[in-house]
């Protein structure tokens, strides 16, 4: 059949009446639209939506501006947040709390649990393009162990030797088994080719603490500064915010959020003003009062269990009154934990009765007597059975010991933060309801750490402990850790408890470990070296535009960024065959 030419088609169209032409072209348009729709539907069958590079998020952080963006020195929230984003470890924790290889390609653990062999990915590189080698790993761990560096990571590597087998293989040898050792290997690794040229005297003052080079999911793109102060030496500048962009050669895949900005604020009021104005769209570690207000405004609050225990830690060496077990029993009995969780944490926390996390099957959840009068009556009986008598005239409990009279008075020390101070005030009232004279001493956190906790100058200390992802209670309760720099702040000494803690920290079998910690809990219950009050929750506001951002396992606020390389905002559609 001969194909009609253009002239013949025009003649045919011209033979149509006006009405026939309108109908004809309407059918043509319908046909074309239908054909496009059919083709699109068929095409969509072979398309899949995938994350793509794009979008931005701005997080606000309260406190000091960054000084030590360094895995060995990071102390402030700003330090730790940026360290988490910029550095990588041999291992990384995923959203399920499992250890996955990061800089490492694979690893083996010897049958006796004493030798850990790691093979580093051949493609692993630093953000300046240099390869990551076993030299970097060895250098970082040796620096962590160096007393001159004063790294808070040092205890995790005591008794551990490290040596490289070749450029891509590193071996750790332990003197004794240590079940949570893999957690230590999430430490960020420093590039030796940079830090190896810096003396220990200059380690803390190096400019690389402010402008670091790592191998993590993000690298520094821009640092905005502002005037901090004027002096005879000139104008002093400090960071206002950091802009970070994805590192193209991050071992676990290129991050998809195009810009992450971390802004710094001196106080909570400024942070909240920035959030309300839209200057920032994410904030973490929100105070319960603010979280409650935001929740009432329909803002979604992400919650996660924090492996922290808050309690009253007794120093029996500092007070004869506190050294009396009956006093500690009575002080424990009269505290209303639920009242504290309701009033101070506004429900964003859980009562506890021991040092083991609520997520553990061994966790003991404290229970309060129903009425305040019932708690007081029970505590009074305890004191009376311990030889204490209430002197109505003086309004105080007294006890005669070796011809001298002890008055039941307690000093409680804590930090000047809303939650700690608020809880300490309720504890003070609970104890005063029992007829005990209580002095509450509140300190700024730096002063408390340096002048009260380190020299152990307190009767009772209300404070918190970060237990960690894989709890090792040795550091908190073993008698060898009772003096500074140890963190056994109750100065607890019990030979049976010591043996149980020693056994638990090297035990790889979880059932046996649980049994040892259960027996240890019984020793604490009998001795009452501390009163355990609550475990708080991590509170986080994040914009809804961010997808796939499961917070997962949190031990410190910066852990929210552990899986940031999986987060995304923008998406694109591609054929399924191209998804890899």
Characterize the structure shown.
The protein is an alpha+beta fold and 580 residues long. It is 30% helix and 26% strand. The chain has helices at 6-14, 18-44, 77-86, 134-145, 181-184, 192-195, 268-277, 288-296, 325-334, 337-343, 372-385, 418-433, 445-453, 474-477, 495-506, 510-527; strands at residues 47-52, 54-62, 91-93, 99-101, 104-109, 115-120, 160-166, 169-174, 218-231, 234-246, 257-265, 282-284, 302-305, 308-314, 349-351, 389-391, 396-401, 404-407, 409-415, 437-443, 460-466, 530-541, 570-575. Strands 2, 9, 10, 11, 12, 13, 14, 15, 19, 20, 21 and 22 form a twelve-stranded mixed sheet that branches. A four-stranded antiparallel sheet has the order 5-6-8-7, with helices on one face. It is globular, with a radius of gyration of 31 Å. The model has no long low-confidence stretch (mean pLDDT 89).
Annotate the secondary structure layout.
Blueprint: H1 6-14, H2 18-44, E1 47-52, E2 54-62, H3 77-86, E3 91-93, E4 99-101, E5 104-109, E6 115-120, H4 134-145, E7 160-166, E8 169-174, H5 181-184, H6 192-195, E9 218-231, E10 234-246, E11 257-265, H7 268-277, E12 282-284, H8 288-296, E13 302-305, E14 308-314, H9 325-334, H10 337-343, E15 349-351, H11 372-385, E16 389-391, E17 396-401, E18 404-407, E19 409-415, H12 418-433, E20 437-443, H13 445-453, E21 460-466, H14 474-477, H15 495-506, H16 510-527, E22 530-541, E23 570-575
Parallel strand pairs: 2-11, 2-12, 19-20, 19-21
Antiparallel strand pairs: 1-23, 3-4, 5-6, 6-8, 7-8, 9-10, 10-11, 12-22, 13-22, 14-21, 14-22, 15-22, 16-17, 17-18
Helix pairs in contact: 9-11, 15-16
